[in-house]
Amino acid sequence: MNATGRGWTILVTGLGPAAWGTTYLVTTQWLPPDRPLLASVLRALPAGLLLVAWGRRLPHGTWWLRAAVLGTLNIGVFFALLFFSAYRLPGGVAATLGAVQPLIVAGLSALILGERLTVRAVCAGIVGVVGVALLVLRASVGLDALGLAAGLAAAAAMALGVVLTKRWGRPVPLLAFTGWQLTFGGLVLVPILLAVEGLPGAVTAAQVAGFAYLGLVNTAFGYAVWFRGIERLPAASVSFLGLLSPVVAATAGWLVLAQSLSGWQLVGMGLALGALVAGQRGTARRDPRSDARDSLVRGTTTPGLGLRPPAVIATVSSANTGLP
């Protein structure tokens, strides 16, 4: 991929995390209060079923298990652990834990994908965590051990999902592939919703509009461009784009909700954006010849090598965190 194509791919992929950054704004303004799991199920499951119906492709063979694993990691387990963490930790702590994800992805990519772990990527990951912490943390915070563990586990779950998505590729068009994951992830969340929050009550027209936005724009579109970026860019490079979420969330709070931004928050925003840019330059692909060999073994697509696969083969917390 040439520089122009890579830049365009980065820009399009970044639209996903940018959309996720609006989750807090939409949830607090239009959705029922204190129903984060309901919001998650209605984000993922209807959008997933719609995309599956649109793509008219069901998983085949081993892809039933793979789609279930990816949907569980990227959507189901991630959302459930994220909400648990957000309710047990002060506002902003969960977002800071989520900013560790690029470091986890970089390490897993080196182990599983053979992508080189560079010093620049590690440094950029550390700067990203510091930047998000300055942006979203408040002066006095108390830390809960279970909340911390859940927040780190949420970041690790999605990080592993990103790497496995990159490793396995996709056997069907993008929208169908996205639909598989959203459907499985939503189904994982349904029993948790019923156990924790119970059945939903009546909803207003404004709430229906909010759910529709979260399902179609925030989730269906957001995750489609995210998965597209994973297959075209190094996994660690994609994960750094997740730093856009808290930046967009803070900006939306300032523009729409008249929330103030302190000098330190602006410094944190600058550090997060700087880490994002450095993360694009600090990640490296492995040897293309190794990619070609693995593609022949797995039957996945490797851009630029002319290989083709077989044809049949949110959230809300107690503060404006911008988490997916």
Automatic annotation (TrEMBL):
Domain EamA, first and last residues per copy: 10-136, 146-277
Entries under Pfam families matching the protein: EamA (PF00892)
InterPro entries from the UniProt entry: AA-Vitamin_Transporters, EamA_dom, EmrE-like
Compartments, record wording: Membrane
Residue intervals passing through the bilayer: 37-55, 67-87, 93-114, 121-139, 145-165, 172-196, 202-226, 238-257, 263-279
Alphabetical UniProt keywords: Membrane, Transmembrane, Transmembrane helix
Membrane topology: Multi-pass membrane protein
Region Disordered: start-end pairs: 284-307
Biased amino acid composition, Basic and acidic residues: 284-296
Principal place of residence: membrane
GO CC term (a single one): membrane
Family assignment from sequence similarity: Belongs to the EamA transporter family.
The protein, known as: EamA family transporter
Gene source species: Pengzhenrongella sicca
